Amino acid sequence: MNRSTELFQRDADAVSDVMKLRFYPMVAKAAGGALIRDADGREYLDFSAGWGVANTGYGHPRIVNAVCKEMNRLSFSPTISVLNEESIELAERLREMTPGDFEKAVWYGHSGSDANEFLYKMIPAATGRSRIVSFVGSYHGQTMGSYSMSGHPAQGKFTGGGNVTRIPYPYCYRCPFERDRETCGLFCLKYVEDFVFASQVSPAQVGALIAEAVQCDGGDVVPPDGYLQGLERMCRRYGILFILDEVKIGFGRTGKMFGFENWGVTPDAVVMAKPMGSGQPISAVTGRKELMDAGVGMHMFTTAGNPVACAASLATIDVIEEEKLAENAEIQGEYLLGRLRELQAGCPVIGDVRGKGLVIGIELVENPETKKPASELAALVVYRCYELGLLLFDSGISANVIELTPPLIITKQQCDRAVEVLRQAIEDAMTGRI
Ligand code: PLP
Predict the structure, then answer these.
(1) 3-state secondary structure of 144
(2) Torsion, CA 114, CA 395, CA 48, CA 327, rounded to 10
(3) Is there an atom of ligand 1 within 6 Å of 113 CB?
(4) Annotated catalytic residue, options 44, 108, 120, 139
């Protein structure tokens, strides 16, 4: 029995199934840059960046140093009651980084889920309006409020929550209104005002709208130009807070520090987590002070904003800025999209290739005419890629989208390698060689 199999068996006995979303039998042992080594010494190119966390690559020396130094200096202080310099410096930095000429404050947590949960509690407290609008296909987390705001099938077994109205995301490849992107005039936006607000929910009851500027777990869907701007204008018309969840696409992934900057909108609050601490558990919400200060003591955790995680985040921001990782994401993203579109040209099961910077989706279909989702094929491709040394996961409401969110440090050669493995994996999955 190899080491990975042994560890898998021990995990099966000891770790709750509730926290298992396993795509392949991988046990990570060491990592550096974009590469991970497993417990048996096999090396993999990680094109998921551990679900979009390792934007700076694994084990970046500056981040390792920052964490070790802070751990030696001030291993902990409970930011909720005893201040530390790092959490203050990081808050000031995050306020500067996020747009908006209004007064801002920052809240700290540990995950995208608890950050969205903060908003679920704070929105009614700040606005006196109990309803929230979110999107079909969205994923905001696993706690009660973040779960409720999501519209992803992963939430299918959940029965709690409420006060959320879900509207269709502008998923042009599968337009819910069967319109054409060139001529639709953004009908999906009109639908919200003319139908949802006219007949289902009064906008006067809606405190906030929460969106992902690129909908990741819903299938890595990039909205058409003009959509987010239109959404922002609609929110302003009705006095609805415009909130953007940047948990997966923030910190350089789309070619800008924040994904929404690609469309020039100004949210009232921004949610951040995953890459912000390069793996140290830290999340934040930055937003209008009146929203952020609405419920004193209503959502706070003992280890949130701790100095070590904040030091990791400050070093992460430095690395992204100084090493121009957002710029690299744009360059490599363009290149990768081009290579994947070449692959698509000879491969009818690839229905759509889309992305912004280094968040890319390859949508697999059984037939390009019917667009029937090829979910089983996607699972086989993901598994075969793992066997061939490339790590990635699937996304989408039907789990038929291969998601590529590699570290932002990747090179052209690594992109070429990933495309080659994908080509081979699709061929092997289709010809039953797996
Ligand atoms: N928001 C978005 C857009 C996400 O993609 C995720 C996780 O995938 C979350 C929130 C939840 O983050 P976490 O898993 O850190 O709780």
Answers:
(1) helix
(2) -90
(3) yes
(4) 139
Phi-psi region of 117 (alpha: psi -120 to 50; beta: other; left: phi over 0): alpha
CB-based contacts of 323, cutoff 8 Å, min separation 6? 56, 409
- Active-site residue flag, 139: yes
Question: pLDDT by residue (tens digit) across 32-81?
Answer: 999 999 999 999 999 999 999 999 999 999 999 999 999 999 999 999 99
Q: Distance between CA atoms of 45 and 410, rounded to whole angstroms? A: 10
Separation CA 316–CA 430 (nearest Å): 41
Both tokens of 292, joined, read 């952020």
Instruction: Give the ipTM of the model, two decimals please.
Output: 0.99
pLDDT at 155: 66
Q: Is 150 in the pocket of ligand 1 (CB under 6 A)?
A: no
Distance CA 347, CA 362 (A): 12
* pLDDT at res. 161: 67
The alpha carbon dihedral of 166, 169, 175, 180 has a sign of: positive
Q: Which atom of ligand 1 is nearest to the CA of 114?
A: 16
Q: Is 411 helix (H, G, I), strand (E, B) or coil?
A: coil
Q: Is residue 30 helix, strand or coil?
A: strand
Q: What is the per-residue pLDDT across 339-354, written as a single tens digit (0 to 9) for each?
A: 999 999 999 999 999 9
Cβ(297)–Cβ(378) under 8 Å?
no
Residues present in the chain in total: 434
CA distance 296 to 105: 13
Average pLDDT over residues 190-216: 97
CA of 271 to the centre of ligand 1 (A): 10
Q: How far apart are CA 148 and CA 157, in angstroms?
A: 12
